[in-house]
């Protein structure tokens, strides 16, 4: 069974940076469009950034210019470089395919940005 495991979250001050990683147990990252999603307390899960198998990218307006999604097909790993973090970026970050598939939701990684 394919698993996606997120890591790299933490507590950071506003203006700081974090790099999230998503490791896959199979070839899911190599062959699918992938995305990062986040869920803030009390909010629905939202799409943050996406990347196609051809490496075209798309971002939510709230993170454009600050976040960069990338993929390493050899390592079967998805990344999210987050710069100039803001308190509103706080939440649990998940990786999944695009469109997402229920069986691939993992535990996520918590990002907390203090003001």
Helix content range: under 10%
Q: Count the strands? A: 10
Q: Cα distance, first to last residue?
A: 40 Å
**Number of helices, counting only DSSP H or I runs of 4 residues or more:** 1
Low-confidence runs of at least 5 consecutive residues: none
Approximately what portion of the residues adopt beta-strand conformation? over 45%
Overall body shape: globular
Order of helices and strands: EEEHEEEEEEE
Rg over C-alpha atoms, rounded to the nearest angstrom = 13 Å
The main pleated sheet reads as: 6 strands, mixed
Order of strands across the biggest sheet? 2-10-9-4-5-6
Could you report the average pLDDT, rounded to the nearest whole number? 95
Given helix and strand content, the structural type is mainly beta
Structural summary, described in words:
The structure is a single chain. This protein has 115 residues and is mainly beta. 3% of the residues lie in helices and 48% in strands. The chain has one helix at 28-31, and strands at residues 4-7, 10-13, 18-24, 34-39, 46-51, 57-59, 67-72, 77-82, 91-97, 109-114. The strands form 2 sheets. It has a 6-stranded mixed β-sheet with strand order 2-10-9-4-5-6, with no helix packed on it. Strands 1-3-8-7 form a 4-stranded antiparallel β-sheet. β5 and β6 form a beta hairpin. The longest helix has 4 residues, at 28-31. It is globular.
